[in-house]
Amino acid sequence: MPTMEKMGAFFGRFRAGWVRLTCVVLLSAAAAGQTPTGPLRLTLQEAVDMALKNNLQARLAREGVRQARGETGLVRSVLLPNLSGSASQANLTSNLAAMGLTRETFPGLDPFVGPFSRFDARLQLVQTVFNLAAIRRYQASVHGLSLAREEQRSAEQRVIIATVMSYLAVIEARQSVEAAQADVALAKRLLELARSQREAGVATGIDVARAETRLASQEVRLAQARTDHDTARLNLLRVIGAPLSSELVLAEDMRFSLEDLPAADDAVRRALNDRVELRSALEQVRIARAHKQAAVAGWMPVISFFGDYGSLGVRPLTTSLPTRTIGVRLDVPLFDGGRTKSGNQVADSRLRQAELRWNDLRAEVEKEVRQALDNLATRREQVLAAQKALALAERELELAQDRFRNGVGDNVEVVNAQAALENARQGVVSSLALYNMARLNLAAALGHVEDFRL
Is 419 exposed, middle or buried (0-12, 13-18, 19+ CB in 10 A)? Predict the structure, then answer.
């Protein structure tokens, strides 16, 4: 029984400690302004920051930079001193006759020697003095590290683009839901109007049936809009790496402004200077050029310094004496079966390919910039036209309702005007989304997608 009492007391203390720890965690979260459950409220910049931190592409790009940095260190190690140490204790026998010391040459000599012991401990140093091919390969690895950094920026820009597009998709879906809700509310009002007109003897049953059909179709459209909104929300949560069960609240909305567009030639010059893809292509040209120079340097001699210092004897601290070796080595390539010549041909072809890709990419960037400017101008006009169409549709519905209310016409005009208003509302939402997508496209074409703001 004393044992059971001790175990009960232990579990009681454990439970009390766990409760205290839980309270501390909850109080800390509350003090930090974070609740365990609640809506995730995000601005566009906060969504981008989360995506850059959590998205797989951005994380892999950062690892790519680490890998390139390690590869640069590997290539550089060939040019730096290489110091090693070794120690050995061996028991040996030898045949002097194998070295030309026979009984015929030295009468009475026993050619078998041993067994005897030998101890050798020493430090060995090798230092490259001149190796032009290794120097060029190291320069190529430095450009490879720069390329990895540019590819990291490119991956981050792709993540930003995906995040902004997902953010805009959620806003568009939310506004589509709001438009569908307004359409349902309008359909209900028009149904009540049709029923009251039938009771007054102005309208017929077909007018009421027509209004009921329109209400049913709008309720279906509202359900689809909500489904689209949930899909867009999940896509954004997946891009930014947030839990998919999070309730999402966006703190920003799409905007429209008649801002001046940059001149096409100025925009092209800016893109040619700032586009990450062009900088990456240029680094690839530099890498190929360095490898070409390394291949040519394969014909050059290599000079290296070597030396060692250690203790040689029978056993450690027994008849051991300090010994050393110092020397300079010169390696001159004479004939390698055509390997160096073939390597030059391969490196020269790779250099030409890199230059061709870089020149082609410059033309592609210019085309993208000019297309982005034209597209943005078109989308801006579409927004203005959609806003005008919405105002006209609202006026048309108002007039149709007055005619129907006064018994001048049936609700066919009302239903047609209602459909026109619904399409105009959705047209405003779609044109505004396309306009902001065009703004994003222009920012990406200029190489400054990180500067995009709603």
Answer: middle
Q: Which residues contact 17 (CB under 8 A, 6 or more apart)?
A: none
DSSP three-state, residue 453:
coil
Task: Give which of 398, 425, 353 is closest to 190, Cα–Cα.
Answer: 398
- Burial letters 65-79, b for 16+ CB under 10 A, else e: beebeeebeebeeee
Model pLDDT for residues 175-184, shown as the tens digit of each residue: 999 999 999 9
Residue whose tokens read 């005007």: 417
The model's pTM? 0.79
Closest CA to 450 of 160, 46, 153: 160
Measured between alpha carbons, how far is 418 from 156 in angstroms, rounded to an integer? 45
Reported as a single tens digit per residue, the pLDDT across 403-412 is 888 877 667 8
**According to the model, what pLDDT value does residue 101 have?**
83
**DSSP-based three-state secondary structure for 115:** strand
- Tokens 């205290």 label which residue? 20
Mean pLDDT (whole number) for 330-347: 92
Residue 259 has what DSSP assignment? P
